[in-house]
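[job 4471] stage=fold_predict status=RUNNING
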Amino acid sequence: MPQAEGEAMRDWLKGMAGLRRSLEGNRMLRPVAHWLGAPSIWHVSRRSVARGVAVGLLCAFVLPVGQIFLAALIALVTRSNLIVASVATLVTNPLTVTPIYYFAWRTGKALLGPTAEIREVLEEALEDEPVAGDFLTSLSDASLYTAGGLLVFAIGSALLGYLLVHLVWWGTTRWKQRQRRGGRRSVGEV
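[job 4471] inference complete, writing structure tokens
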């Protein structure tokens, strides 16, 4: 890693330490302050970062509003990296939400087909829940298709993000090991 990048990373990590202290000292967050002190939600490790990406992507597609807050809460409970989970939700933003919803609608329509049968099954399952049943009947076909597509995107992107972080982390570690071994050989050959 070049010198400038190393210094920038160090400064960024120092800023995160300040953020952690300010969050722990915030009186509004006092009820969850003991969770904010858990090192695993701040530690940059392969597992905590992978979990953070998965949590963030899941929340990005499941909720249209309040994604960062939900991702932060889930990150606290699952001991995922809090910052990574919060940042990963930004995959859905004002620039990307329109194409995402369009492709979610198309995906849901392709997967669900006609919704009459789905409505019957869901209405039977929810007949003891009048509020949920009324909500279901108020949804249009487009809403059901979009919700189905977003659910597929949420689960698929969370799994894919989790696996990609592990793969990239493993590849980067292997590359760095080879670079170190190659550097030692060239020093020994001189």
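[job 4471] summary: The chain has two domains: 1-37, 45-189.
[job 4471] exit 0
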